Amino acid sequence: MKQAGFPLGILLLFWVSYVTDFSLVLLIKGGALSGTNTYQSLVNKTFGFPGYILLSVLQFLYPFIVDPENVFIGRHFIIGLSTVTFTLPLSLYRNIAKLGKVSLISTGLTTLILGIVMARAISLGPHIPKTEDAWVFAKPNAIQAVGVMSFAFICHHNSFLVYSSLEEPTVAKWSRLIHMSIVISVFICIFFATCGYLTFTGFTQGDLFENYCRNDDLVTFGRFCYGVTVILTYPMECFVTREVIANVFFGGNLSSVFHIVVTVMVITVATLVSLLIDCLGIVLELNGVLCATPLIFIIPSACYLKLSEEPRTHSDKIMSYVMLPIGAAVMVFGFVMAITNPQDCTHGQEMFYCFPDNFSLTNTSESHIQRTTQLSILNISIFQ
User: Fold this and answer.
1) Looking at the predicted structure, is the pLDDT value of residue 273 above 90?
2) Residue ranges of the Amino acid transporter transmembrane domain (predicted)?
3) CA distance 384 to 381
4) Cα separation values, 379 from 6, 123, 199, 213, 374, Å
5) Among candidates 159, 216, 154, 207, which has minimal Cα distance to 185?
């Protein structure tokens, strides 16, 4: 919302969710047309070994470079401990279906976190000054916003794994599942984005939790829940990365020993990367434009166009022709803009409105006395 403009951001969220829904169904249709049951085998049959290697790199990098953790006191110890205690054991599962209940818990926690963000939009929002351009329709960084939204919706890299875990998997059953999932997801995203942006407007950080003050116990509980969701969902991402390694280097099968070795290596290196990165915004942008965008917009469309024998006027083909150039544009221009104009990052520092003495330095219409009084009320009544 901060990058795209509030009204345009809402429209883009709906658009990206529609494209995601379409491409996920298209992906499974492509698998049915080619007689393949993995994303890699689909691309390999469609575009040969070069396409197979390109997709393998994208699938490997997407879950590998993500670190949706926040900056806490002692974060290195917490990340290390949670990785060894929870993430690694869960990542050792061989069957992705066994992670279904774990993902359900993560979904419940996400709903709880959303409730906390909504509550703070009501109690905290009126005390935060609004930036001057808060309500403009569109902003020049909208392409970067598309990258972040693509990151939020990407699940193509494990779609075949989930599809194969269904009882009696069919394209029709998969389509119904995807439609329902995307509708739920887009409304969760809209509520998160809207409540977060209405609270902080132009001060919104790449990691929304960095906007809240440290003495807010309710939000601290939300941070804890968010950390748990990361622990519970990362094994699914590790599952994909491990499968890529198995397909590229081991012919698709890993012995019990190599299964453990590869899993430990992936988790270890990913954890080391996460310990070095404390800015979530730039990670979301780069991951979105470099990995999520081709996996959503470009590759499913390209595979379907090459495999399908439908006429060019068929609706699926028309949509695929539209998605290809748009995806390429978002990928190129989004990458350039992410490098030249990255999101703000506080590196774990408190925001200015958490300190009444600094609040008078902001350019708002209220008087110094009003601002100080508001922050005193905010600190006493809201955060205690």
Assistant:
1) no
2) 79-339
3) 6
4) 28, 12, 16, 9, 9
5) 154
Which single residue is written with the structure tokens 């730039």? 282
Nearest to 162 by CA among 92, 90, 108, 99: 99
Alpha helical stretches, state H, the chain: 6-34, 39-64, 75-82, 88-91, 100-123, 142-153, 159-165, 171-200, 217-249, 256-276, 280-287, 293, 299-307, 315-340, 356-359, 368-377
Q: Are 346 and 316 in contact (CB under 8 A)?
A: no
Q: What DSSP state is assigned to residue 134?
A: T
Cα three-residue angle 267-273-275, rounded to 5 degrees: 100
Query: Which of 217, 309, 360, 277 minimizes the C-alpha distance to 32?
Result: 309
Report yes or no: 222 and 210 within 8 Å, Cβ to Cβ: no
At 362, the pLDDT band (50, 70, 90 cuts) reads very low
| Tokens standing for residue 107 | 């979904």
Six token digits for residue 366 = 């209220």
Rounded Cα distance between 216 and 382, Å, is 7
Q: What is the mean pLDDT of residues 197-223?
A: 90
The number of beta carbons lying within 10 Å of the beta carbon of residue 135 is 11
How many of the other CB atoms lie within 10 Å of CB of 105?
Answer: 13
C-alpha to C-alpha distance for 10 and 15, rounded to whole angstroms: 9
Quick check: 63 and 241 in contact, CB under 8 A? Answer: yes
Q: Which two tokens stand for residue 71?
A: 């900056």
Is the per-residue pLDDT at 150 higher than 70? yes
